[in-house]
Amino acid sequence: MVYTLSGIRLPALPPATNRSGSALRGALRTANLSIFSKRNSGKIFAQKPSPESDSSSLRVAASEKTLVPGSQIDGSSISTDQMEVPGTELEDPQVLQDIDDLTMEDDNDINKPTNDCSKVDKNQVSVHSENQDDKAQGAVKSVTLPGTGTVKKEAARPKSIPPPGTGQRIYEIDPLLKGYREHLDYRFGQYKKMRKAIDMHEGGLDLFSRGYEKMGFTCSATGITYREWAPGAKSAALIGDFNNWNPQADIMTQEEEKWKWYRFSHATASVLQWSKRLVKILGRNEFGVWEIFLPNNADGSPAIPHGSRVKIRMDTPSGIKDSIPAWIKFSIQVPGEIPYNGIYYDPPEEEKYVFKHPQPKKPKSLRIYEAHVGMSSTVGEPVVNTYANFRDDVLPRIKRLGYNAVQIMAIQEHSYYGSFGYHVTNFFAPSSRCGTPEDLKSLIDKAHELDLLVLMDIVHSHASNNVLDGLNMFDGTDSHYFHSGSRGHHWMWDSCLFNYGSWEVLRFLLSNARWWLDEYKFDGFRFDGVTSMMYTHHGLQVSSMCFEKHTHMLLGVV
Asked: I need a labelling partner for 556 at 20 to 30 A (CA). Which of 33, 153, 262, 492 fits?
């Protein structure tokens, strides 16, 4: 379990020496970036940060060490002779055969914060527990910590994901596959081993596929936490409008701060008694996860205003690099600029879209209308259509034509519009060309009102090779999210190929699919480029006979 106590924000005097020409934190505490306007639906505006603000402050986190009499804190460091799953490359079948021998940090230590800063009670300290007993009870409990009063403990959301079956029914559906039973059974066996490893080390597929609750930007009652997996980076800092783009203001660390309950003994009236005490543990993260906690301002407002531009600056093997956070929920192209900017997206409660209609029931058969929102405009002049216009003009027409499902292309953000949405740069962000995330939610809700299923054309087969806006060379190496060298390059698409054998890449992609289902209420997916995902030859320059004879070329070796 992880317990988070409040951080403290204190005013600070300017440093005696100033190498950057400003105070230690030349932070902007006013929202000088305005990208959302109700009067201009579908339009996005941004302003560059004002250089006039030079206010400074210093963030100090509570770091007192608690000594526990008679106890051993064996979790303060991670033994180097223990091999842990995250960050390992599951490239070969031999690795998967030994996967049961791997050890993993207990997932109960992972804090599950609230992603909505506007909903938390700033007068309380949230303590989250994902204990198995708590999950079974599904209740909200309270604990009392010394000096903190009553603290809420929230149970994790239960979700039933069935275990793998026998894998034999496929031969009843398609008897022609019996000729490849040996290989298909081998592949299904590898899948079952991976599922078993996820169950053992991550607490199940449900938790594993909710990486967005820990990675990227997450909110708690006391502030904002930002985490990024970048094992190749030598140092990292969070920069943006909120701190005047000062790389010295918010430096990230690879230290993990955790709170655990430890038993200790004490004698009372000659009777030995056992009690529990909450102890802070500082241990180094060995998987390349960088982290920073930004406490709330003195007035309780978040340290990063909604709509602020943000990036992560890293010292990498390829040099200094400013990147859009990999788990960013929204990104925009500021007028007059070429690179995109990540946007800290946490609108106030009154601006958030609330779904009003249930998702339609599964039909007996699908009649799918494929559409591209940006290209769906019916006006005479060529314009990029908006989510709002598609909702009001196109969806009713699809319904009248007798379709019961709409498949939408180009949802994930892509800096190159000519790719039709298939060179994705920001996987968790809806395309800003068509509007805001709330606009997309409104579109999907309207489709559900019309009893239309909404399928997302999701791209997990490859990614844009854009270094400035996307995942390519994110931490300065070509082996971060993708295969290294020629294996990681699709020569026809000129794009990067994911390494599906990487534990953290699996977390990223599974969480990405889960995000679109849970946050936006998509009803399903059409996966693009499946052939490229399955075969090392990617279906290029091969005949149909090659597909039948060379099943060993399945990318399943990872």
From this structure: 492
% of the chain exceeding 70 in pLDDT: 63
User: CA 400 from chain center: how many Å?
Assistant: 37
Strands 319-323 and 331-332: unpaired
Distance CA 291, CA 227 (A): 4
Tokens 């599974």 sit at which residue? 510
Number of residues written out for the chain = 558
Close Cβ partners of 464 (under 8 Å, ≥ 6 residues apart): 414, 415, 416, 419, 423, 424, 425, 470, 471, 472, 495, 496
Place of tokens 């699809």: 398
**Token pair in block for residue 449:** 């009102």
Identify residue 401 by its one-letter amino acid code: L
**H-helix or E-strand spanning residue 196:** helix 181-202
Residue 406, both tokens: 């709409």
Q: Looking at per-residue confidence, does 168 or 119 come out higher?
A: 168
**227's torsion region: left (phi>0), alpha (psi -120 to 50) or beta?**
beta
Q: Is 3 left (phi over 0), alpha (psi -120 to 50) or beta?
A: beta
SS (H, E, C) 410-463: CCEECCCHHHCCCCCCEEEEECHHHCCHHHHHHHHHHHHHCCCEEEEEECCCCE
Query: In 3-state terms, the chain is what percent helix, strand and coil (to 5)?
Result: 25, 25, 50
Residues 426 and 328: their CA atoms lie apart, in Å, by: 7
Task: Collapse the DSSP code of 37 into the 3-class scheme (helix H, G, I; strand E, B; otherwise coil) and give the result.
Answer: coil
Q: How many whole angstroms from its chain centre is CA 113?
A: 13
Q: What is the DSSP-derived secondary structure letter of residue 48?
A: P
Question: Residues 123, 16: contact at Cβ < 8 Å?
Answer: no
12-28 confidence digits (pLDDT tens)? 333 333 333 333 333 33
pLDDT of 131: 40
Backbone angles phi, psi at 187, to 5 degrees: -65, -40
Among the listed residues 432, 519, 406, 425, the one whose alpha carbon sits nearest the alpha carbon of residue 466:
425
**H or E segment at 57?**
strand 57-60
End-to-end CA distance of the chain: 32
Report the run of H or E that residue 188 belongs to, with start and end.
Answer: helix 181-202
Kindly report the backbone phi and psi dihedral angles of residue 533, in degrees, each rounded to the nearest multiple of 5, phi listed first.
-75, -30
- Three-class SS of residue 495? strand
Tell me the CB-side half-sphere exposure of residue 371, using CA atoms within 13 A: 23
